[in-house]
């Protein structure tokens, strides 16, 4: 009888140990699943899918500081392209200048007003002149705020009988502002000034 009781007690110990191991295993599995789910959710939040040409492209969101130099240079490039890309069409000029003025402060508006008062845009339309901008490089100093920049470019002025190339060097400062539909990079150009704008060469057409 005592032998039977001993066997029952031993079997109960084994069952209890087995049950304990199952419970610990289940807890460990739950913790592992919870951890992996949290990690997956965190990584998913850093991914953005952009639909382009009916294809889903994955983009990864990063801190603004990581791409500040790239975004600042692109902001400067887009402003100059909008401001200096002109065709003999009043609507095209107005559309491009409007886009440019969203990216800069009153210093750009003053230059636009001066050009307009001097009949620059009227001459573009009357002479059937097109102007394109070829940007060579943009430098931005992100070590000091506001960020100082310089833009080196060439203007290509297409007239009826000739093509004129002019060198263009400008400088200014970039200030952080809120992102918007009209200002996707969230910068504003301040104290924008033209350092050089002179003829390089003229080609007959």
From TrEMBL:
Q: What is this protein called?
A: Conjugative transposon protein TraK
Organism the protein comes from: Pinibacter aurantiacus
Name the encoding gene, please: traK
